[in-house]
Amino acid sequence: MICAMSSPETSPDTKRRDSIILAIACVAQFMVVLDVSVVNVALPSIGRALHYSPTGLQWVVNAYVLSFAGFLLLGGRAADIYGRRRVFLFGVILFSLTSLIGGFAVSSNMLTGARVAQGLGGAVLSPATLTIIITTFRGPRLPKALGAWGAMGGAGGAVGTLLGGVLTSLLSWRWVLFINVPIGILLSIAAVVYLPELATHTPGRKLDVPGAVLVTAGLSTVVYAIVNTDTHAWGSSTTMLTLAIGFALLIAFALVEQFVAKDPLVSFSFFNNRYVNGSNLVMFLIGGAFFSMWYFLTLYLQEILGMSALRTGFAFAPMAAAIIIGAQLTGRAMPKLGPWKIILAGTTFAAVGFFWLSFLTASGKYWVDVFGPAVMIAFALGLLFSPLAAVATSSVGHAQAGLASGVLNSARQIGGSLALAILATVAVDASLKQLGGGAIAHRLIYSPTTQAARVALTHGYSVAFIIAGCVCTLGLITTFTIPRSMAGAQALAAANSAAH
């Protein structure tokens, strides 16, 4: 891999070019993350228009997230083998085209299928954005670039809800998907004009497509089994068989990677690294908790507090600001404090925020019950993105930058999809028990027209937030497995670069 790095003495023209490249990477990452959350505010509208069930509605989110998570390793490896610009363009085009198809969906199956294909496009695109930054910036400019990347990626989650509310209210839920098309066109043009290629195809190296299919199928099957527990109990033969199939597919993935694949998605020796393992485990746990916040708060604000999609979107605006502020503070503080202290602070704020958010009531008020804890959680998210990315990628060579970013993003998406499936099921189950169960309770959960139904739904959301708080606490504890000094990471990176 040939890398053209910027130095502190770069010329004005080079700085201008690098700024444009950074903007391209950040906008692309923003678009990919945006698509996880932009549909959240539109979920009630989508559910009614395409006749999704209460638990089936989460597939609008999880179909995208699971495909995204499963193919991220493939996307990260593709960026290393075929080059960042080529892979970036392919991802943008696929993402934009499938967004257009999803916007025209006339059934739940059609939309779910489009979201799966969108996830594949995002999985190709997202690792390329981080690879672009890592191979363009070095020295004191890298933390600042990562801070901008983290701010845009993190803000995509919160801005998505705001944008989703505006588009759903003023136009239609379909525009939460159509909006990606013009952005994708502009990104494609900018990449062709400004983004140089820093790698060429290496003869004999191939993508491990079977491995990517196995891991995606395995994860999807496990999540499907969890989601389907609303109709088949946890101990039923159907649930047990589905889980067994899912785990068998994941075991097959591990065996293929270890013994069959010539160029595996990820070699297991890659994880003989405390920096990689610690940062990815924290990202896995924190990602799971944060996904649940956007999902449940959207439903709470609209179904319980009676906010419109537009008001709900604006209710998330302070969270977008908190994420950006957190990420910018991280970019400035990381060169002085190092990543570890910032990760510790972020996981602490996240845990406190989720436990605080669990005190929601059916008669609550946005400014009293939601604003404070939600802003604290969003600020924590802004703090965490960049230092976790820095730790995960600092100990690998540049030839593995795409792989490292793919693994990190996979950890976040897999954690999010599994946690959302589990927490959504737990929340619905807690709400049904509050109402006494039965067909009537199911109807009330689907359309909460009574105060008893709203109280039951809120109880389910609170249970989910308590569990999310426990997950963040586990993330806080896991932070202590990450080495505090980055000197060892830099030595490992030099050794890995020399090996490749």
Please characterize this protein's 3D structure.
The protein is an all-alpha fold and 500 residues long. The protein is built from 19 helices and no strands. The protein has two domains: 17-207 and 263-499, Growth Hormone, Chain: A, CATH 1.20.1250.20; 208-262, no CATH class. The longest helix is centred in the last third of the chain and has 35 residues, at 401-435. The radius of gyration is 22 Å and the shape is globular. It starts with 11 loop residues before the first helix and ends with a helix.
Number of beta strands: 0
Helix content: over 70%
Structural class: mainly alpha
Overall geometric form: globular
CATH architecture of the largest domain: Up-down Bundle
Produce the secondary structure layout:
Elements: H1 12-37, H2 43-50, H3 59-82, H4 84-103, H5 108-136, H6 141-170, H7 175-178, H8 180-194, H9 209-227, H10 237-260, H11 274-304, H12 309-315, H13 317-337, H14 339-357, H15 366-394, H16 401-435, H17 439-446, H18 451-478, H19 487-499
Helix pairs in contact: 1-5, 1-6, 1-8, 3-4, 3-5, 3-9, 3-16, 4-5, 4-8, 5-6, 5-16, 6-12, 6-13, 6-15, 9-10, 9-16, 11-15, 11-16, 11-18, 13-14, 13-15, 14-15, 14-18, 15-16, 16-18
